[in-house]
Design brief:
Blueprint: E1 12-15, E2 35-39, E3 55-61, E4 71-72, E5 83-84, E6 97-108, E7 111-115, E8 124-130
Antiparallel strand pairs: 1-2, 1-8, 2-7, 3-6, 3-8, 4-5, 6-7
Amino acid sequence: MTSYDLIARPIGRVSSDLISLADAPKQGSEGGPEAWIELEETYAPGLAGIKVGQLLIVVTWLHHARRDLLKVHPRDDQAAPLAGVFLTRSADRPNPIGLHPVTVKAIDGTRLRVGPLEAVDGTPVIDLKPVIGGE
């Protein structure tokens, strides 16, 4: 297997009322609030063309996740049998990348108000992707 050096630099951070992982729903559609994506000024030109109402995938680095787990109880249900992390949406995984489908609610300079978003305050944002056909 070939080895590669991967470097992902945050383009911004989540600014949310969700402070604790315990307060965050498992998925945004399960009660995630609106939140701000605050981009670094360097990346402002990348927002060109984004509109209120557009559907985006926010790609995050789940910085609180454990990276040493390969089996988890799905949805933290201890009654559920252990499953491999690649079968689940668990944040705990070797590369804790989060995918969050959201709707753009407002645009303020380098800030996007989006929702619903289950990521906690301070979560690094590593990319934004449009949902194809989601205008």
